[in-house]
Design goal:
102 residues, mainly beta, Substrate Binding Domain Of DNAk, Chain A, domain 1, 4-stranded mixed β-sheet, 10% helix, 56% strand, elongated
């Protein structure tokens, strides 16, 4: 993508921050998925509308894929966090902060 086109999309599309993600987590949004590393902090340039965010953890041998829906609005920054609940890593939007530059 050309830099000029990407700069225009920044004002029209959204960002999903996922902080503290464990290394080797499988992360996906809609029909795309990746195995993330230690520097992964989220995904940008998400088009407006509903998206399904899914993940599987290396500690669980990627057996259980979990996920949640997020509705992206223009200029929206949505923040989800990974946390350990009862010794199990979980990614969620429960503590999400949504900021919109309207």
């Amino acid at each position: 993508m050309e830099p000029e086109a990407a700069n225009k999309l920044v004002d029209e599309w959204g960002v999903l921050l996922l902080l503290n993600t464990p290394k080797d987590m499988q992360f996906g949004i809609d029909h795309q998925s990746w195995q993330v590393g230690t520097k992964f902090k989220g995904i940008k340039l998400l088009p407006p509308g509903p998206h399904y965010v899914h993940y599987a953890l290396h500690d669980e041998v990627y057996m259980a894929k979990l996920g949640f829906f997020v509705y992206v609005k223009p200029k929206m920054v949505s923040e989800g966090r990974t946390r350990s609940v009862g010794g199990v890593q979980e990614v969620g939007q429960g503590d999400a902060e949504v900021r919109e530059d309207a």
